Amino acid sequence: MALTPAFLASLREALGEAHVLADGDLTAYEHDWRKRWRGRAAAVVRPASTAEVAQVVRLCRQQGVSIVPQGGNTGLVGGGVPDTTGTQVLLSLQRLRSIRQLDAQNLTLTAEAGCVLQHVQQAAADAGLLFPLSLAAEGSCTLGGNLATNAGGTQVLRFGNARDLCLGLEVVTAQGEVWNGLSGLRKDNTGYDLRNLFIGSEGTLGIITAATMKLFPQPAATQTALAACTTLDDAVALLGLAQRRLGAGLTGFEAMNRFSLDLVARHFAQLPQPLPDAPWTVLLELSDTEGDAAARLRLEQTLEDALGHGCVHDAVVAESLAQSQALWHVRESIPLAQAEEGLNIKHDISVPVSAIPAFVQQTDALLQQHLPGLRLVNFGHLGDGNLHYNVQAPAGEDPAHFLQAHEPLVNRIVYEQVMANGGSISAEHGVGQLKRHALQQHKSPVALQLMRSIKQALDPDGLMNPGRVL
Ligand code: FAD
Ligand code: ZN
């Protein structure tokens, strides 16, 4: 059902002609980053303020039209693109992009939902402070999208995920009311935690329009190293050793299997490959309150210990900021290299760190048994027990065909092993459309019933991003 001309006119009156797009090429809004989902929007609306968002929600509610919120459209589970019915309004937050306040003494920043993550990081840096949320999509993803998906990234080990960094939210409810919960308080025990209901709700409970986030002092020095490990057991041993020696200074611990680095070398030949091939390569980052020389020494001593212990067989510490950035660039290029290689079956699973080696060994073996020759792009935030356990077609096989033919089997094997190891089927990307059915299978019936009750209470008409999560 297309939108009525009168309804479109009321949207245009609220937002201005230029910000209600109902025809022309809407691909950028309708197609997801992975090019896995292609929907069709009845209209794309681009409000510029919280009041305009609230007005759109009220207008849609009057007409019974459902709304799909979208930030930077970098989500990986099909949560931010419309369905194929052509009846949904896509609400883009990209024009809500002002940094409303930075309180250096309270170490907080209040920014609107459409602010690109990199701009938020920059605003903090301009004030001599650190906003630690960091992920490969940071040049395009938005703060609102980060909160709606409770994004993780590479600094979770020390600073936590988006939820841990958030102190307050401003939300337009499904009724079109504005809840101003933008407190910069670190302590507030006045009833149910509304903020944490909306964080990670993927647009299904309301629209996040602004947030107050924690800032931190900038570290005096940051040092980066690569270490080569023969097994994942060795990488986990290195993690324990680094945590003991570096304490809270250990801000990054990323593992990459050989094939993920092979893909980077193949598709981004200009990037460095400073260590010879190893089954597992670990990127460690130390952030220190002392200067560069002291930080470097601590990192070198930690790696010497690890070499002595035998869990590492080769290591290199970046000698300059540029080298350190290049090492991170290699790590962050893995998803892009994978995209170049073709469609793949993505998993962002977590299991307790102690269970990671057994999980990977068992799951690799089961997959190879069922689908000989498949290739595992296995990398991620080992320090958080979170791996991107991605499955690529055997060499020479058509990736799209492989995905279509084998995704259910691959998912079943991976998720059964995740559950057997006490893990979660999504540590970072969320549920969206992609993992809706898997969620029904793997989340407890009691938890699902509680989630449905919350959805029913906050969005009784089911107009907020329907068909996602639940
Ligand atoms: P979108 O894609 O626009 O939306 C994502 C979901 O949130 C949708 O369901 C949408 O409806 C909802 N939403 C968006 N904005 C709002 C809002 N203001 N209010 C309510 N709902 C809203 N994720 C990680 O956790 N860690 C990573 O390391 C990581 N790396 C990535 C690397 C790459 C190259 C890419 C492409 C993605 C990566 N992601 C990662 C996925 C991650 O979910 C997104 O990058 C980011 O958090 C989403 O932000 P966005 O603004 O693009 O949201
Ligand atoms: Zn990740």
Protein described:
The chain is α+β, with helices and mostly antiparallel strands and 470 residues long. The protein folds into 4 domains: 5-92, Uridine Diphospho-n-acetylenolpyruvylglucosamine Reductase, domain 2 (2-Layer Sandwich); 99-217, Uridine Diphospho-n-acetylenolpyruvylglucosamine Reductase, domain 3 (2-Layer Sandwich); 221-335, Alpha-Beta Plaits; 342-434, Alpha-Beta Plaits, CATH 3.30.70.2740. It is built from 17 helices and 18 strands. Strands 15-12-14-13-17-18-16 form a 7-stranded antiparallel beta sheet, with helices on both faces. It has a 5-stranded antiparallel beta sheet with strand order 5-6-10-8-9, sandwiched between helices. A hairpin with a 4-residue loop joins strand 17 and strand 18 (386-392). Helix 1 runs antiparallel to helix 3, helix 10 packs across helix 13 (334-341) and helix 14 packs across helix 15. The protein is globular. The model has no long low-confidence stretch (mean pLDDT 96).
Notable traits:
Uridine Diphospho-n-acetylenolpyruvylglucosamine Reductase, domain 2; binds flavin-adenine dinucleotide; binds zinc ion; 4 domains; Uridine Diphospho-n-acetylenolpyruvylglucosamine Reductase, domain 3; 470 residues; seven-stranded antiparallel β-sheet; globular; five-stranded antiparallel β-sheet; 17 helices; Alpha-Beta Plaits; 21% strand
